[in-house]
Amino acid sequence: MRREWPLVWKRGEWNPAYKKDEGMDENNYRPITLLTIVGKVYESMSTQISSYMDSKLDHCVSAYRKNYSCETTLLALTKNWKLTPDSKQCIVLLSTDMSKAFDSLLSPLLINKLQAYGFSDEALSLMRSYFTERQNRVKLYGVTGTWKDSPRGCPQGSFFGPLLWNIYYCKQC
Question: Is there a contact between 19 and 28 (Cβ–Cβ < 8 Å)?
């Protein structure tokens, strides 16, 4: 049986959210996607996926996870850094900007990872449907733009976004 995400649930309205600095610069805003309430309820199945995936995600993946935080990450890093000189190893730190992380998610790669993690054909079909034929439009002060196809990424403001990003980003499979 093919699972489908209804088209009307794939539509979202982008509401610009102010991030920082000069308010007149469009680069200082990020789009938060306002989704239909039915779509949000349906997305709540992310708790099932999260409980299934939690033990499979690398312990170093700390973003958007229960019992993980910036503080726990920094404590673990500090502990490892203190032990490194004793074992005559060097420390290399890579810092990345994840400000547009959800926008860069490629759904075919994510679907392949989900398949490798053992997701059923029905679940994979549902996830493919979630990512195809998505549309967005801008809404600002009650004025809305026209619907535009959104072929990449995961909606900012969705329940799925953080969880799917962790699965996508995780090196372990």
Answer: yes
Q: What is the dihedral of CA 5, 6, 11, 12, to 10 degrees?
A: -60
How far apart are the C-alpha atoms of 7 and 133, rounded to whole Å?
A: 7
The dihedral built from the CA positions of residue 111, 115, 119 and 124, taken in this order, carries a sign that is positive
Task: Give yes or no for a contact between 9 and 42, defined as CB atoms under 8 angstroms apart.
Answer: yes
Please write the tens of the pLDDT for every residue from 31-67.
788 877 776 666 666 777 888 888 888 777 777 777 8
pTM of the entire predicted model: 0.72
Counting every residue, how long is the chain? 173
Residue 70 CA to residue 68 CA, distance in Å, equals 7
Q: Containing H/E element for 140?
A: strand 135-140
Pair 104, 153: CB distance under 8 Å: yes
Helix (H, G, I), strand (E, B) or coil at 4: coil
Cα-to-chain-centroid distance, residue 9: 18
The tokens describing 146, both together, are 């026209």
User: Which residue type, as a one-letter code, is found at position 116?
Assistant: A
